[in-house]
Amino acid sequence: MKDDIVTKEHETNFIHDFIDEDISAGRYPDRPIYTRFPPEPNGYLHIGHAKAICLNFTTAEKYGGKCNLRFDDTNPAREDTEYVEAIEKDVRWLGFKWDELRFASDYFDEMYECAVRLIRAGKAYVDDQSAEEIRRARGTLTEPGRESPFRSRGKEENLLLFEEMKQGIYADGDKVLRAKIDMASPNMNLRDPVIYRISSGEHHSSGDAWRIYPMYDFAHPIEDAIEGVTHSLCTMEFEDHRPLYDWVLESLEWPFAPRQIEFARLNLTRTVMSKRYLKELVDDGFVDGWDDPRMPTLAGLKRRGYTPSAIREFCERIGVAKANSIVEMEYLEYFVREDLKAKVESRNVVFDPIKVVITNWPEDGGGELEDAEMENNREVPELGARTVPFGRELWIDGADFMENPSKKYFRLYPGNEVRFKGAYFITCGEVVKDADGRVAELRCTYDPATKSGTAFESRKVKGTIHWVEASTAVKITVREYGYLMRENEEGENERDPDSVREYRCVAEPSLANARPGERFQFFRHGYYIADEKLTDPDSGGDKVFNRTVGLKSSWKG
Ligand code: ATP
Ligand code: MG
Questions:
Q1: Would you name the residues annotated as active-site residues?
Q2: Could you report the per-residue pLDDT of 436-459, keeping only the tens digit for each?
Q3: Does 219 contact ligand 1 (Cβ within 6 A)?
Q4: For ligand 1, is residue 241 a contact (CB within 6 Å)?
Q5: pTM confidence score
Q6: Domains, in order of start, for the chain
């Protein structure tokens, strides 16, 4: 059902309808359709940004146009070079190539000139009021604002004061430059918005060259116009700012005006999508960095095993709309599962291992079946097969044995026979326990007539389980992830402290050679990736695997 709704949205993209209109109207006759992705380098990109990235780059692609990556680095206090590098890497990882890499801070001179032009045109003034005074005089939705006592300052005085602001004569907050528009406008954003402020912060790129910084609403249209952007795609919260966007370029008599188009942000259940909040999780040590596999950041999703193609397909299918909505996390998971299904090879890994001893198998080895053949991917024969050692002592999953089985339990229990995948039918005999009463070993027998690949149609068994041969098994550590956020009793979102679980597992020998970043299906368990960074010091340097996603979808398609 939901899948249907989403698919329809993806078929009609209202942004492309607007662009088609602009092309038919000949609005941008002499330039390509040009978009940009403009992150502020104050954190790592998250899956919400992926939606904006995909939209900007694929729109440019569709129209044979161009798309820039532009860092919107006009706020010295929050920005950092670490983030610049991480963002470039993430956009590339998603598979997009920008036409030009730009920094808003490269335009500081030009923006300053633009502000001077506004002052000369009588469209901007220096205000000495404090931020608090300005806020109080702004009025409300039902009451007009009050004009500043400094609104009627002469041009020459404004030019001088603005120059002094630039020279660093005043302290942060002493003065601001405001656009002179309309204190009675029904749109609060047009009530003489602040367009430049003083900040003594160190800028990540320009250092202390500037003591004044442009505000977003003034800077953004100029950045777009300088780069020749035709369609400036942004999220809905900027809809009410569009008249100001247009006012800035009109007032500067810019010969060409980009068109701002807004779309709804992506929100996902069970996580948070705000860099500020994600930074808190990192700073508090709740997660292990921006690339913690639980994070909705692209770096986190990558480390968790998500593929760029799954994320792109997800972004495409959720579509673009004007109405805000929350997409279920299961929908994102569906796409990575679909993508991995036909790509990755299967491996046998046993969780919570129980030892099985096949008592009628020759003790000195040399049994009939030394190696079992296993298909690498049941659905994709081209991925071939591998052999895994078989033998007298094996490990099976704790969940595949029950001493007192419930009614519908078809796996191993005393007296029951099951198929050991790729090997034989095996019957469970005696259950040996340790001093604490825990199951230490299952003494079983195999039936030589049931060797895998031979005809043994006469008898059927209901359960098939997987196994790992004990003498060649390798130990691995597996991390499974829940969700970052859960709902508490009051229905509020809160951090889920139980969002990661660690298991010591045993695996078939080939996993000892898994390369960091290599993905597998752990047979009957899910999709996993060898962690890029970790080996487990607590267990003598075992390889660590992250669960990307389970095998089954709880998504109701
Ligand atoms: P955050 O609140 O997470 O810090 P932001 O909007 O402040 O996000 P920017 O770096 O300014 O982050 O965002 C760059 C671009 O990505 C903007 O065009 C913004 O509209 C878009 N974007 C950010 N979050 C989302 C989201 N959840 N869904 C779609 N687009 C988004
Ligand atoms: Mg922002």
A1: 40, 265, 275
A2: 999 999 999 999 989 888 876 567
A3: no
A4: no
A5: 0.94
A6: 4-99+215-335 (3.40.50.620), 107-214 (3.90.800.10), 345-469 (2.40.240.10), 474-549 (2.40.240.10)
